[in-house]
Amino acid sequence: MNLTIIEILILLIPAIIIAVTVIIIVRYYYKHSENERRAELILKNQEITLPLRLQAYERMTLFLERISPDSLLMRHNQSNITSRQLHSILLTSIRNEFEHNLSQQIYMSPKAWELVKNARSQIIKVINTAAEKVDPKAPAIELSKKILEIVGEYDKYPTAATIEYLKKEIKDLI
Question: pTM of the full predicted structure?
Fold first, then answer.
């Protein structure tokens, strides 16, 4: 049985076509199933991390509310202390609140965390600026008035713009 080259090609071409088709189908199936597994993994990861991220944004919003000057002054309102003592109490309160929430940065975007740190720095700057303008032995109410006076010059509280940004990011997460 002598087969010519043409006859051999006639027999091999369909086999080659079938083999190539099978390879293409197997590759497509493998790639598709890999993408499906990756999507499932991402979804499961989000189910775990989304609540943690939302909690972080919630805690940082609470932090920003707690360090806003009016909130700080209301919480630490004591009539029998000096402005120097109030100054120290306010800064200690901000530092403690910040340290308590420091780990939340893991779940926040870098920009959101940077804004939180900047808001904290601005509040500290306002308090320090007011303390420089008031006699350290003056009653604490004098420092409180000066802080509120300086903050009154702002269009928004330094913390308010950051809270707005955090709310925007939360909407994007959900």
Answer: 0.74
Q: Which residues contact 150 (CB under 8 A, 6 or more apart)?
A: 126, 129, 130
Structural tokens at position 126: 């306002």
pLDDT, average across residues 42-69: 88
Any residues with CB less than 8 A from the CB of 98 and at least 6 apart, and which? 63, 67, 120
Q: Alpha-carbon distance 44 to 50, whole Å? A: 10
Residues 6+ apart with CB under 8 A from 141: 79
pLDDT at 74 over 80: yes
How far is Cα 72 from Cα 87, in angstroms, rounded to an integer?
Answer: 11
pLDDT of residue 48: 77
Residue whose entry in the numeric block shows the structure tokens 């420091």: 102
Residue span of the structural domain in which 116 resides: 52-173
d(C-alpha 125, C-alpha 128), whole Å:
5
Question: Is 36 a member of any domain?
Answer: no
In a domain? residue 15: no
pLDDT tens, residue by residue, 96-140: 999 999 999 999 999 999 999 999 999 999 999 999 999 999 999
The total number of residues shown for the chain amounts to 174
For residue 94, what are the contacts with CB-CB under 8 A and spacing of at least 6? 67, 72, 120, 123, 124, 127
161 found inside a domain: yes
